[in-house]
Design goal:
heterotrimer, A mainly alpha (113), B alpha/beta (216), C mainly beta (92), A: 113 residues, Cyclin A, domain 1, C: 92 residues, mainly beta, five-stranded antiparallel beta sheet, 5 strands
């Protein structure tokens, strides 16, 4: 037997937590591109920011702790695009595999890189 | 606070704060980077997006920075009629100054001698990004999102701001379609300063509520 | 006189924008914000109805009780009409 009060992990207001970490970073180009993909997909009606948030929430707390902000965002962008039928999982899988074979770093893995 | 790079051409590789982007090539290609490349290429091939649109969107986001908000605040400090319009409709007032804020619904909340305002998003990381640019990392952390609504004065002390007891603190949780910007109180000793001089006093944190403007 | 409302103490499993810490709490409508597409439908790629959205103000004392840092400080949040119940003049 188990039960749950229904509070979802992302709904954080009022919980106990430690000091606010003040360190920051500038964004990498690939992170900027993820941000741009989200905004443009929204403008073109492929999905909404609410769909992005829903996918982020459904990824769970483990993903929040384990992956960076834009790592989670590209996963959520992809989830929504798959659901919208923008491309198939088969196409995505083949392309990710092809990208891996282009080179060992982000720069070298660009099609024109 | 980032430098104002309005007048500079932004080439790829430099962030709005004028620092180089965190290197993309200092680590092996990750799963998520592969996904980004694949998603971007598929969207282009399917005719959903063009590379030019993606580049233009990155450029537009890079052009947004706290300097934009600082200019709005400085105008409000200098022009009572503008301040009234800002408090009535901050989106329109920002557009009036020429800032491209897209569909942003912006509300300005005013700090006074007896009121201080603080902005948070407990559910995700909503932020007036179309005016101020992308949020600082701390804004998106569990610690800030959790504590800013229950022990905001304690959080403010971590930012070096000790709020007097006679000041009422108003916390704004950005839970839906509105975004918020704090209109800080104009510092004393700034009579006669130009808008540009005033804008240089306005920090990003003073527009989120976790700080005050610089003193002249 | 500001209208008093209570946030419905519901706990559905999906994407909603009413924070947990405000559910069941009473506040006053600070201002109506207009009608916006329902995020509870948008999140699932569905056609969305427009729902009225309100900015509601709570006291820290109401939200956190004895644990409040400063009872008279306030907390504003945006809440959709379908998450609010109006408290009549005779409500306790």
């Amino acid at each position: 037997m188990s039960d749950w009060d229904g509070r979802r992990w992302h709904d954080m207001g009022g919980q106990d937590a430690g000091p606010v970490p003040m360190d920051g970073h500038d964004f990498a180009l690939w992170e900027k591109r993820v941000d741009a993909l989200m905004v443009l997909c929204g403008q073109k009606g492929l999905f909404t920011v609410d769909g992005l948030r829903r996918a982020l929430e459904d990824m769970g707390e483990d993903a929040f702790e384990k992956y960076s902000y834009y790592e989670r965002w590209i996963a959520a962008v992809n989830q929504n695009l798959i659901e919208a039928g923008a491309y198939s999982l088969e196409e995505l899988a083949a392309r990710m595999d092809e990208v891996a074979r282009r080179g060992p770093t982000y720069g070298e893995a660009q099609r024109d890189g | 606070m980032p430098h104002d790079h309005h007048d500079h051409f932004h080439h790829e590789g430099m962030s709005p704060s004028g620092h180089p982007y965190r290197a993309d090539d200092d680590a092996p290609l990750s799963y998520w980077q592969r996904m980004e490349i694949a998603v971007r290429e598929l969207l282009v091939e399917k005719g959903n997006l063009t590379p030019a649109e993606i580049a233009a969107q990155i450029e537009a986001m890079d052009a947004r920075s706290p300097a934009n908000g600082a200019a709005v605040v400085a105008r409000a400090w200098s022009d009572a009629a503008f301040k009234a319009r800002l408090l009535e409709d901050a989106s329109e007032a920002s557009r009036e100054m020429g800032f491209d804020i897209g569909p942003l619904h912006l509300i300005a909340v005013e700090n006074t001698q007896d009121t201080h305002n603080l902005i948070v998003c407990t559910l995700c990381s909503c932020y007036p990004r179309n005016l101020l640019g992308l949020p600082p990392d701390w804004y998106k952390t569990r610690a800030y999102r959790s504590r800013a609504v229950r022990e905001p004065r304690s959080v403010l002390r971590e930012f070096g701001l000790d709020l007097p007891d006679h000041v009422t603190l108003r916390v704004h949780d950005s839970t839906a379609d509105m975004r918020y910007i704090v209109l800080p109180a104009r510092p004393a000793g700034t009579d006669g300063m130009t808008e540009a001089e005033l804008a240089a006093l306005v920090t990003r944190d003073s527009m989120i509520g976790t700080g005050l403007p610089r003193q002249p | 006189m500001a209208e008093r409302v209570r946030v419905k103490p519901l706990s559905p499993p999906g994407h909603v924008r009413a924070p947990w810490y405000l559910r069941g709490k009473e506040g006053v409508i600070e201002r109506p914000l207009g009608a916006f597409a329902n995020p509870e439908q948008l999140a699932y790629g569905l056609p969305a109805e427009k729902k009225p959205l309100y900015r509601v103000r709570f006291t820290m004392a109401e939200v956190w009780g004895d644990r409040a840092e400063t009872p008279d400080d306030t907390l504003d949040a945006e809440l959709y009409g379908h998450w609010l119940e109006r408290l009549g003049a005779h409500a306790p």
